């Protein structure tokens, strides 16, 4: 395997070395490239790794004909067109934990700087002055810290705030009660409630459609008199013009800003004139330890993506709380069950798929979304470009083809790790089910109304025939004459002498005319050949 990777934006060399030491990886390291130069070169690479300085635009992603993975050495991915990456099936991997401690420590350093006038005291001392009486500050002890976003960084800030004797409250509708309890943080039901409660408000949320402009003029008016606002998350979450207007009233104690709507911050920006605003140039992750951590994390994620097809770190694959490694058999089963169902419908002349329904056992429920993605990929095999079809974009591609995707309810599967796909085309439909044990290969257990037991591997033959003596022998003889080895043969029937179904697993690809030869046998009514993508 040869993988070409472009690393830019001064990613720490420790991380780059992980890639350079991997056999088959060809790594080019460049400084931040002008957009037009990067656009010309990106078509030669399978992966791009960078930091926030490089914008991964729609145009760039479309020009990356070979791109399979984007690595972001940091947390935020607002410089990456996530929608287009998902549409193209390109994994986006970040390093969410690497800068957690760095940001949390900077938070306390900067807030203490503001409350204790550290920068002003330092400047006056260097100027030869002694202004002790004018620099009386305030303590953190007993103050209420309001955290917007109780994720990794918000949680780290909360953990450290206890050491300062602060009271803690947070607003995060996407975090379970257990985390609030574990961190000893009071849960508040709205942003407005938090703003009106806290002495210090700190933001730790991503920049997206929901959070852009979250702290606007009406929100700022809800802050308590003497409150401090801290933004170390992303520029654009706080309306900077509204914040300047609110600071001008001298109602607030001040603000701490590490991120801005436009970076670098303009030289004449009004924030620079305010002594009650602590400004830092996006230093959240700027520690030796943090840069080491994020580089190692993201480069290891990109490496494992190519070596092991590991999508567990991809932001545009929703695996819920499931263990991606333990989930692998179920993902394979969902995709291959759907592939079988589609092939059976096609053999019956029903080619325009209109709906896919997935039912799953209790143990697989946390991974429902990604299993539906796997099944979606299965019905699209041999219909769209397989090289660009994966768990990242399968549901979107299905939706673009007007295929309705559903998670079924009711009728609990007979096994906690069982699943069933129901594929509909026109007025016809096929059900295919199976079981995916953790410690064994998955098995198909149902095709239509027939109970079967066979592993969905390499190539399957699905034969509909009459239940009469000699059919199995005739099929075996024909396959032997064609030098095709049988791995498994399962025969099922509804009733003696009636309709029967055989599922035959083959060790290799069959000759092109095998189906035609099988149809020439007595009592064989229909033959479907199913070859699975990714098997030798």
Structure in words:
With 536 residues, the chain is of the alpha/beta class. It is built from 17 helices and 22 strands. The protein has helices at 13-20, 35-41, 58-63, 82-88, 100-116, 118-126, 152-161, 177-183, 191-195, 217-221, 240-248, 288-308, 324-347, 368-380, 394-400, 471-481, 514-519, and strands spanning 3-7, 25-29, 47-50, 69-72, 91-93, 144-148, 167-171, 186-187, 200-203, 228-231, 254-257, 277-279, 353-360, 404-407, 418-425, 428-435, 443-447, 450-454, 459-466, 486-493, 499-506, 524-531. The strands form four sheets. It has a seven-stranded parallel β-sheet. A hairpin with a 2-residue loop joins strand 15 and strand 16. Helix 13 (324-347) runs parallel beside helix 14 and helix 14 (368-380) crosses helix 15. It starts with a strand and ends in a 5-residue tail after the last strand.
Topology:
Blueprint: E1 3-7, H1 13-20, E2 25-29, H2 35-41, E3 47-50, H3 58-63, E4 69-72, H4 82-88, E5 91-93, H5 100-116, H6 118-126, E6 144-148, H7 152-161, E7 167-171, H8 177-183, E8 186-187, H9 191-195, E9 200-203, H10 217-221, E10 228-231, H11 240-248, E11 254-257, E12 277-279, H12 288-308, H13 324-347, E13 353-360, H14 368-380, H15 394-400, E14 404-407, E15 418-425, E16 428-435, E17 443-447, E18 450-454, E19 459-466, H16 471-481, E20 486-493, E21 499-506, H17 514-519, E22 524-531
Parallel strand pairs: 1-2, 1-3, 3-4, 4-5, 6-7, 6-9, 7-8, 9-10, 10-11, 11-12, 13-14
Antiparallel strand pairs: 13-15, 15-16, 16-17, 17-18, 19-21, 19-22, 20-21
